[in-house]
Amino acid sequence: MPVPLIVSDVAKSFTMHLRGGIEIPVVDRVDFAIETGRCAVLGGPSGIGKSSILKMLYGNYAIDRGQVLVRHHGAVVDLAVADPRQILAIRRDTIGYVSQFLRAVPRVSALDVAAEPLVQRGADPASARARAADLFARLNLPEKLWDLPPATFSGGEQQRVNIARGFITDHPVLLLDEPTASLDAANRAVVAQMIEEKKDAGVALLGIFHDAELRDRVADRIIDVSAFAARRAA
Ligand SMILES: Nc1ncnc2c1ncn2[C@@H]1O[C@H](COP(=O)(O)OP(=O)(O)OP(=O)(O)O)[C@@H](O)[C@H]1O
């Protein structure tokens, strides 16, 4: 079976250092796999641990227990024990991530922000910028903004730069954390189409979507995170 990422018996707690170091368990015994050409969606109520799972899969949060096995350049890497250099290489070539918020770098134009992941992978900067421009046009980002740094853009404009940046590469795994939270219906439809194109290209997607219409359109499967909720102290 084409499985680029397997999550096995994963647990995560947060330690509250400002509250005497108490441990707050969030998820426990998380087990699932994602498949090529499919979009799985993390479901469950607010605060159950959906974003925390995505952040562990992208190496943003440490994994307390269990394994996250990723197929990377033909080898299998366990993200739970990967070193920072391996995590950076996995982000460059294997796992893409679109978060809700753009981390804007001062003085870098929107086109260069979106083109950067391709340039990091060795693409010619001019063709990477042309590809970013195509995505901006599809996402209806006004052309007058393309050469400006996105720091002062509206929430929805920044989100479209972020989506272009996340979708510009052909990473085999793509994680989506509420990628359309600030978008209008027309642009949400564009993103739905872009997700469908990724599926057709054989990408394995895992997302969080609060927008039910988008979720129903793109989801092949819902993974109910409530099933992995850690038992919390009252
Ligand atoms: N960095 C952190 N430090 C401490 N607690 C955290 C941290 N990140 C998340 N949490 C806690 O972990 C729990 C799960 O949060 P998470 O953001 O994963 O939930 P979610 O299901 O994505 O919620 P929502 O749907 O509201 O975005 C929450 O109780 C949250 O307060």
TrEMBL record:
The organism of origin for this protein: Roseitalea porphyridii
Keywords: ATP-binding, Lyase, Nucleotide-binding
Gene3D superfamilies linked: P-loop containing nucleotide triphosphate hydrolases (3.40.50.300)
Family under the similarity heading: Belongs to the ABC transporter superfamily.
Name of the molecule in the record: Phosphonate C-P lyase system protein PhnL
Domain ABC transporter residues, every copy: 5-233
TM spans (from-to): none
Gene Ontology molecular-function annotations: ATP binding; ATP hydrolysis activity; lyase activity
InterPro entries for the chain: AAA+_ATPase (IPR003593), ABC_transporter-like_ATP-bd (IPR003439), ABC_transporter-like_CS (IPR017871), CP_lyase_PhnL (IPR012701), P-loop_NTPase (IPR027417)
Entry-linked Pfam families: ABC_tran (PF00005)
